[in-house]
Write a structure and sequence with these properties.
By secondary structure, the protein is of the alpha/beta class. The protein has 13 helices and 17 strands.
Amino acid sequence: MNKMTIRDVDWQGKKALVRVDFNVPLSGGVITDDTRMRAALPTIKYLLDNGAAVILMSHLGRPKDGPDPKYSMKVTADHLAELISAPVHFVGETVGLEAEAAAAELQPGAVLVLENTRFIKGETKNDQAMAEQLGRLGDVFVNDAFGSAHRAHASTEGVAQHLPAVAGFLMEKELEYLGGALEDPKHPFVAIMGGAKVSDKIAVIESLLTKVDVILIGGGMANTFLAAQGYGMGKSLVETEALEQARSLMQTGAGQIELPVDFVVASAFADDAESRVVSVDEVPAEWRALDIGPATIAHYANRLAGAKTVVWNGPMGVFEMPAFAKGTVAIAEILAGLKDAVTIIGGGDSAAAVAQAGLEEKMSHVSTGGGASLEFLEGKVLPGVAALADK
């Protein structure tokens, strides 16, 4: 990784303005999963231990029209105070006189959490006036929010025009693992692609075909690939508008793209629907494929057996329903059992599935950014990364 990190800065007496990803799930005003907050702790602790005052900014949810109390960052400030031993303050403003005063008063070894960046319209428009105001709050900008790095917002990209900008530890880890997989992977290199839609992943598949030895397809997108080969898919989700692209990908990736050989099909889209295993050429007219079947799991296990690098993005079926989660869980277990492979889980639903199976610790890297990791795997330049200072 050729970007400067927080290790390259002398923090004594400096104010670190840190973009974190505290966009945590809430239920009734309570944080239901603090994984993203915990992921930022190594960066926060390093800065505090090295003499910095730490100012944190993040978005939370999708507030429609300006400030909305249910998306206030106060809940994350209170929770952070339980996770670290340093004093944590909160200011009900993102930019402006109150925020500037709170930042100016902040002492080394203490943390200040700013209000939700998306309470200000200029955030998503990458408004330069807002970026400049953010720049007044700190001495150095630290981007540790990989999950938002694919967006050119005031708090991710704009502010880097007004302060020296470096990567936090989480950003560094994401770039090292994902960058390593793309630039210098060990072979055999296997990609596993799932999820509902082919259209979301066409560019990723095209990019990966130039790098991987094999791509294993599952999830709803497998239906579209099979329909493009002439298989009858019953009531399964098929993207008719993507059939031509699926056909073309199969030609480009002949010998590289592998599709399921059997499915778990169901009579309805429901966890308690009648279900059975059928081969791909036997999907009943009124039924729908909701998971990969046991023969596919066994075949994919074979293909993964000697892998040295694996990137997985997207579940193998409707894993939210226990009846159709077996394929996704099986893939997670296979990856967890690979001894000398680098296993990278590309955020989003795949990360949720691995967490659900309790196997996060067994993976080399679980990405915190669904959309960001997809764009990175596509080979796109992420604005939040491009804005960081080069080594």
